[in-house]
Amino acid sequence: MTITGSRLPRGGGAALLRALAPGALLLALAGCSLLGGGNRDLATIYAPDPRATIAPSAPSVDWQLVLTPPQAARIVDSLRIAVRPTPGEVQVYRGASWAKPPPAMIEDTLLRALEDSGRISGVARQGTGISPDYKLAVELRRFESDYRGGPSPAATIEFNAKLIHVRDQLVVASRTFSHAEPAGGTAIPLVADAFSRGMEGLVSDLGLWILTEGDAYQRRVHPAVAR
User: For the whole model, what pTM was predicted?
Assistant: First the structure.
């Protein structure tokens, strides 16, 4: 926000603030939080709360896993909600943002799903001090509303996951996960709901994959520590 004018009152900035009526000052400060230039609609913050579950077929494991912070390009690792109206163009929704960047949403959803499953001895974020047997590296490639030539978009999420055995320093499994969840309309709340559903499905698949691949490697290479 800038205040224009050719001359400040005597006494500088402090005198200027005293000269502004309290109501006018509040209005000026409120203007700093508005998006869209002449459009004075308040920005809406969307906070999806996906609840992914791990399939009952997942093995129970005695090893521990640490989640490294997911990596993403700047356009993906952003609070702005990306939309692709045409294949070669990426924009952002005006007057809307995420409460957390997409990499953080993916990590939070996975951590909660694994903790709530009760099928892993220990899982934590990087830097929490546990001694992990495995670590997970995720590269988030796409997290955008993609029209794909249709009248309404789909919440499109794509990431690559690598499961790394810490002691062996070996990538024991790698897989790319991708899903496009139809939004059912062009309104931003519908798009946000589609992202929530998309994360639930993909993270459920990711959690099952982690437990299955890690268990298979333990049984094959380190049978003494596998259940």
Answer: 0.80
